Amino acid sequence: MAKGSSSNNAAAVFGTAVAIRLALFQFPALASLLGERVEISTPVTSFKRLSEGVFLFTNGVPPYDGGVVHQAPLLLGLFYPIISSPLLVNLLYILSDLTIGYMLLQITTIKDRDYAKEKKITQYGGKEEEPGMSGLSVATLYLFNPYTIASCIGRSTILYSNAAVVAAIWMGMKGNKTLSMFSVAAATYLSLYPSMLIIPVILILTRKINENELIKKVAIQCTGLFAGSLVALFALSFVLVNSWDFFGSVYGTILTVSDLTPNLGLCWYFFIEMFDQFRPFFLVVFQIHVFIFAVPVSIKLRKYPLFVSFLLCAITSTFKGYPSVGDASLYLGLLPLSSEIFKYMRYSFLVTNLFLYSTLLAPIFWYLWVYVGSGNANFFYAIGLVYGIGEIILMIDSTFALLRRDFEAQSPPETTGQDAALGWDREVVQK
Amino acid sequence: MGLLSRLSKAQRQQIFGRFVLSWMPTLSYIMVAVSFFWLLALPHQDYSKRTYVSENALLPGSANVQFNWDDNLAAEAYRDTVQSIASLPSIERAQALEKQFAAIGLKSATQNYTLHTSTESLHGVNTYAVFYAPRSDGTEALVLSASWLSRDKTTNTNAISMLLALGKTFKRGSHFSKDIIFVVSDGEAEGLQAWLKAYHGNEENIYEHSEEPLRVRSGAIQAALNLDFAGTGDYNALGIFFEGVNGQLPNLDMINTINLISLGIAPVELTLHDELIPYTDNMTKNYLNSLRKMLYQMKYQAVGTPTGNHGLYLKYKIDAITLYGIDRPGWHSQRFNLFRVGVLLESAVRSLNNLLEHLHQSFFFYLLSDVRRYTSIGLYMPPVIILGVSFIFQALSLWGLSGDLPIELESLAEGDKDTPVALPYSRRSRNFKVASTTMGMAIITGAATFHLLTTEFGLVGETPMLKLVASVGVCSMLVLSAVSTAHVRNQIIQSVYVAQKSLPTDIDNKESSSCQDSNHVVTGQELTPAADWIMLKTLILALSALFVTTLSALNFSLAVSMGILIVLPYMAFRPSRWTVVSIVEALILLAISPPGLMMVASWWYAKDPSDVLSWVLREYEILGTWLLPTACFIYWPLNLAAIIMVLLPLS
C-alpha cells in the first residue's frame, strides 16, 4: 500500500515536471529568449552555437575553425541526427532532466540504506535524529528548481555535463567502478571541470572498505579507468571530426577564458579590464583557484563524499570562467542529498534572499546597460558579485552545518543543565 | 575562570541576539519614519544642486545661427498653409505637407499605419522628410518632430510651420554633420510610435500593428527634439517635458543645453512642464513649489506614461525632450514669437550636431525640482533602500520567532538555568507549505487576471470593466477558498488535539517507557511549527522588500509609491483575536488593492472608473507601459496574500 502510493507520488512529480517543460516549450519565443540570456547560456553551453556547429558539421565545414563552436564533438554527433526536429531536441532535453531527477532519487535511496546502519545521533529530549529528505523530495527539489527549468527551456548544454556528474555519483553509490569512472570521464570530456569529481567518486566507491591497501588498489584502478575512458572519448571525437582542433576550441576556451561575453561569473570583467601582459598570470591564478580546493576538501570531509561532490560543484560554479544558472541547478540538486545538515544551517534566509535578488536584478541591470543605456557594465558585474557572495555563503554555511553535525555525532550533548543552556556555542566552550 | 568568562560570553551573545531580535520591529518602524522624512526633504534646496553641461562637445549656444528675419516671415507664411490644410482628412493633409517639404528640396514621404488594440483600431498618416547633411555619410541623424495634435488638443500649427521654416534654413547651411529628419506625426502617441517602429525595423509584439515601411531613411538617431507650439500666437515661456515611457529619462545634458541657450542666444523664460511659478524668496513657498514639480515628475514616472511624444524615443535609446510653448496672457515675462523659437531650435540642433558620441556624460537618473536644479540618484535612492531594509527587518524578526521555541524565550527571561534551552537541532522546524502554496496561488491568480484583462474573447457586450469584474471574482474566490480551507483545517487539528489530550493514552505510557529521559515532557507541543500566518507574513514581507528594491533600479517613482502604500499595512497587520479587527484590516488592504486604487483614482480625477481602466489598458497596449503588468504580477498577488494572511486563524 505504502509502496503503491509512493510510486504514485513519483509518477505525479515526474509527470508534472514533464508537463511544465512541455508546456513551456510550446512558446518558442520563450525558449529563444531564455536561450539568449547570458545568465542561462554561455559561449560554451549555448544551444545556438551548438546548432551552428551541427550545421557546419553537416555541410562538411570543419566546425571548430570559425571560433564560434566550443562544445565537444560528441555533442555535435549526438545532435546531428535530431537537430532538424525541434520536438526531438526538446524531448531529449526533458528526458535528460528527468534522468537526473531519477538518479538523485536513487542516490538518496542508497544513501538512506547506508545511513540506516549507522549509529543515530541522539537529540534533545532523547529522540533520535529524524531521517533526512526522501528521495522523491530530493528529485522534486531538483526538477522544480526554477534554475533547472530555465536552463532546460533555454536548452543549455550544461545539462548533459550535469547528467554525467550525477550519473557518476549514482554509479559510485551502486559500486560500479567502470560506469562511474566512465561518467566522470564523460563529464570531464563535456566541460573539463568535473575532472575534480574523480576524488569524491573514488571516496564513494571505497566508502565501505576499511583496508588501506585495498583502497589504494581501487583508487589506482579507477584512475586507470578514468584515463582510459577519457582517451577513448577523445579518440572517438577525432574519428568524428577528423582533426584535433577541438582541443583548443573546447578546452582552450574554457581554460583561457578567451570569449569574454558577460556572464554571472567573476572572470569576464577582470579579463576585459586587464592589461594583456598580466593576463597569463591571472589566468593561472583564476584556474588554480577552481581546482585547488579539491584535495583539502576531500581530505577534511572524506567521511561525507556526497557533500564533497556538492561542495566541489559549487566551487566550480562560483569560480569557473563561464558559469550559468545550470551549474547552480546542479549543486542545488546535490545539496539535498545531505539534507540532514539543514537544521544546523544558520544563513538560509540570507542565502535565499541573495539568490532571489541576484536572479531578479541581473536581467534588470542587463536591460539598463544594454537596452536603455542608462546603466553600464559595472551594474551587471555587481550583481554577478552578489550572486557569487550568495554561493560562497551557502558553501560556508553548509560546511559549517556539516562539521557541526559531525561534532554532535562524535560527542553527544548534555540536554539539561548548564551545558545545555549554551546552545549554539557549545563547541567554543569545550575547546 | 576562563571557562566562566567564556560561558557568560556565550550567554551574553544569546541575550544580545534576543535583544536585537525583539527590537527589530521597532527599529523597522523607525526606519520607515526616516525614509518618509528623507523623501519629504528631497525637494528642499539644500538637497539639490545646480545643473551644468557635462558633455564638452555640446558647446551650447556658441555657434552663429542663420535663422533670420526672412526665415521668420517664411515661418509665418507656412503658418497660413498649415492652417489651411489642418482640417483636411489625415491622408490629404499628410500629402499636402509632403509637397511642402518637397518644395523646400527635402526628400519627403508619408507613412500609413493602422494600430489595433483590444478595444479599438487607430488609423493615421505620418509625414516625414530628411535633410541629408552635406558633410555626412548618412550614418547619424537628429530628429525634429511635431504631432498634428498639441498637448492642449488644438492644432500644433506653429510647431509644424517651424519645422518647415527650419528645413528651409538648414538647406542653406553647410555645417551639418548629421542628417536631420523632420517628422510630423498623426494621432496622439501612436503615430510617432508607428514611425519609430518602422524606422528601427523588426520588433515583435503580441499586438497586431501594421505600419507601412519607410521609403526614405537615414542613419542612427542620436537625439530628438519634439515641438509643441499650439496655435498661431506668441508665447510667454518655454516648458520642458522630459518624462518618458516607464519613467525613463533623457540624459540631463539635453535639458542643460536648452537651458544655456535660453539664457544666452535666445533669451526666453524656461520652466519645467507647463506651470509658471512666480519668483519668491520665501523658503516655505520655494519648498512647496519644488515639491509640486517633483511630484508632477514622479506621478508620470510611476504610471509610466510619457508627458509627451519625446517619451517614445527613449525606448529606442534616443535622448529626447518636448519643448512646449506656454501662452499665459498677463504673465510678466516678455512675450516671444516664432523668430526666437527658430533661433533657439537652430542653436540646439547645432549643439547636438556637435556630438561625437551618444549623450552619456551627464545623469540618466535624476529628480528635477526646478529647471536648473537636480537631485542625483545618490541622494534619492537611500530612502527606498531604507524602506526595503525595514521590510527585511520585519521579516527577519518573524523568521527568528518562527524558529524559536516559546519555552526558550521564557526561560531566558526568568534566568532559569535548569530549564533546557533548545539546541539547534531541536528548534522548531518551519512549515512553509501553506505559505508558499498561498503565495504561488496568488501569483497564478495575478497572472490569470492579467490574461483576462488583456485578451479579447470576442464575447457579446465585452468591456474592460466586465473583465475587471471577472478578475475581481477570481481573486475573491482565491481568498475565500484559502481562508475557509485554513479555518476548517485548523478546527480539525484542534479537535484532534483535544481528542488526543482527553485520551488517557497508551501512547504516553509507551513513550515514557521507551525513553527514559525526563525531558520528553516538553518536547511534544513546543515543537509544533509556528502558525501559518507568521510564515505567510514573512514571505510577503521578504517579497515586498525584493520587489520594492529591485523595481527602484528600473523605476524609482513606481517603487517609492508602491513602498509607501504598502509598508505600514503589510508590516503592522496580522490576524487578530477579534474578528472585527481582522475584517477592518482586510478592508484597508482591499482599498489599496489595484481595483481599490482605480476607484480612488477615478474619484480623484472625477472620471468614470471604466475610463481609467481603458486608459491603463490603452497605455499598456500602445506604449508598453509596465503599470498593468506590475499591478497584476507583483502588486496584486502580494495584496491578495496579505488579505488572506490577516484572515487566517491565529494559531
TrEMBL record, chain A:
Region of interest (Disordered), ranges: 410-431
Pathway: Glycolipid biosynthesis; glycosylphosphatidylinositol-anchor biosynthesis
Keyword Signal carried by entry: no
Transmembrane segments annotated in the record for this chain: 78-105, 157-173, 179-206, 218-240, 246-269, 281-299, 305-323, 344-367, 379-403
Subcellular location: Endoplasmic reticulum membrane
Membrane-topology descriptor: Multi-pass membrane protein
An annotated GO cellular component: GPI-anchor transamidase complex
Alphabetically ordered keywords of this record: Endoplasmic reticulum, GPI-anchor biosynthesis, Membrane, Transmembrane, Transmembrane helix
Entry-linked Pfam families: PIG-U
Main location: endoplasmic reticulum
GO biological process annotation, one example: GPI anchor biosynthetic process
Family membership: Belongs to the PIGU family.
Protein name, per record: PIG-U-domain-containing protein
High-level lineage: Eukaryota, Fungi, Fungi incertae sedis, Mucoromycota, Mortierellomycotina
Automatic annotation (TrEMBL), chain B:
Domain of life: Eukaryota
Signal peptide range: none
InterPro entries (alphabetical): Gaa1 (IPR007246)
GO biological process: attachment of GPI anchor to protein
UniProtKB keywords: Membrane, Transmembrane, Transmembrane helix
Species annotation: Linnemannia gamsii
Record protein name field: Glycosyl phosphatidyl inositol protein transamidase complex subunit
Residue ranges of the TM segments: 20-42, 377-401, 434-453, 465-488, 539-568, 580-606, 626-648
Presence of keyword DNA damage: no
Gene Ontology CC: one annotated term: GPI-anchor transamidase complex
Ranges in a coiled coil: none
